[in-house]
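seq as requested:
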Amino acid sequence: MKKYIDVLRRIITYYIIWRAAFLIGCLLPRKRKTAVFAYNKNYYSLPDNMVSVMNYLKTGGWTCIEYASPKSSLKRFLSDIKFQFLYARCSAVIVTDTFDPMYAHKPRKGSGNIQLWHACGAFKKFGYSTLDGDWGGDKRLWKLFPRHNTYTDVFVSAEKIIPCYAEAFNCDEKIVKALGVPRTDVFFDEDFVKSGREKIEEALPAINGRKIILYAPTFRGNTPQDAHNDRVIDFEKFRELSDRYVILLKYHPFTYNCDNFTEDDKKEYGDFVFECPRDIGIDSAMCAADIVVSDYSSLVFEYSLLSRPMIFFAYDLEEYDRSRSYYFGYKDFVPGPIVRTDDELLNALKTKIGTQKTDEFRREYMNACDGSSTEKIAEYIIENYS
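struct tokens:
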């Protein structure tokens, strides 16, 4: 009964309340050069992909409205009605993730619904590609309440991945455009890249000039609510490298409230294992790193821009493949050695890893990211939706 009531509530909200509010908003004139940057407050402050685009539009005389859907259910219900009025009157709505209130109807004629997406490339499957899987949504509910169905433009990091995003968003490939990813522009700024190491060493002076191994896995769990990290690294095994290397831990934001590195861990391994401060972003952490160890995280696309070595610690490869799956065959896709155990990881870290495969990976999956993604996307918005 509770499930049916919830579905009925969503039907009323999706098909009646949101649409009615939007239509009322359309009785008023459309505001030129006005962009709404919309996101869910559950997990984010203003997403980094939005910041540079917002600043660029502001310099061009645009009015930019930051809209954060509240965490509280009642506040969100009332606030998302307000969003419909903004949606009806603006020139463009810009999002970087799923945002349900914009899917109940198409945008007003002449306006744009723009998806920047928060990740680069196309690694693990998402959206319509995962329906009825362990990770994905319920196919019947997505048919009743479509998502990603109102975009006018989707911007991605390379031509090769356009079909992946068309599948994930169940949209025409024509609206998916390889203009780059705004958050990657910083990796072409030499001062920013240099500052990454400086920020880390200032926050963690005990690193003391040693090389940095950045361990940055994606989370485990089938929803953001049950996200967690598996404890798979036996730090004691890596003590032999501690005269030359430190391990810097940077976990997914979904798992920040998990007990990732305990006080006992800090006492035992705190001379060579460090948690990256939360106020230092993953982009700065990557710039500081001499090598990245990850698994299925899309951060490897950004890291490829630095042309540095990567190792893929895929201890649960088959299990993860069954529950989430990938757009490309994992073993042939990743630009670095795949390891399954601590011993294999340790041996890989002792081996010189070249960057030829990384550079090929970058040219294939990140070729639209050239340091001017923000400008290209913002100019596209200005040209098409002013």
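The CA atoms of residues 312 and 338 lie 5 Å apart.
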